[in-house]
Here is the input.
Amino acid sequence: MKPAVALAAIGVLCVLPLSACRSTERRQESRVYDNGAWVAHTIEAEGTTYPVSFWVPDGWKSPGAALVFLHGMGECGTDGRKQMSVGLPPAVEAEPRRWPFVVICPQKPTAPSEWEDHADAVFASLDLAISEGLVDSDRVAITGLSQGGHGTIQIAALAPERFRAAAPVCGYIARPGQQRHAAGWSQPDDPAVRSVAGKLAEMPVWIFHGGQDNVVPPAESRLLNDLLLSRQADVRLTIFEHDNHNSWDSAYRMSDLDRWLVEHTR
Here is the structure.
């Protein structure tokens, strides 16, 4: 997968029309010199063009640490903006000094597809930031919320060698179509679920969930925590007892997640 991803990231300027190439080149220059702002890019993966935006902190010394952020179902699209509207990106904008990272925010087009269906786009986005000299490839963590929390689990398990830590927020383990409980969620004895947990156990993991979540049950995060503990993984579980599905507000604004990520991406 990795060679194809690299070629996709490098080849994007050749694939796009000339007018789009010029626009992308201007955005790259702006991103390098105009720190402390979001700047849009596009990447090509598996024949599809994806929007991706990078946040570069003010006074950034490249290459440095990075966070890959995977958005939820409600932020899918192709506008290149919605993926920065919920969760980590607003927290970074509100308190940028807490988050000394390049933040990489790809956008997947459709809600029915899962993030693992767009794994090449995630890796191409990361490879673009690395090729631009912004990111140290050995200092990358991944996080995401809801469908992006599921994506965090799955993408980190696909390539554990690429991530120093993972922080899924209100996520679920199994994808639709895998074995599930009668209530519709992950089976602890599902081989696919156990395989994902085995791969995820290779890195530190901090799991977040709302105790009152009526969209994705907190049992999903508790199961993931139990599976990781059974593998002697470095794992933490935080349940915000009064939060519903929007536990990302507490995870990104009220917890010590920023410090934990700094510690694990030094």
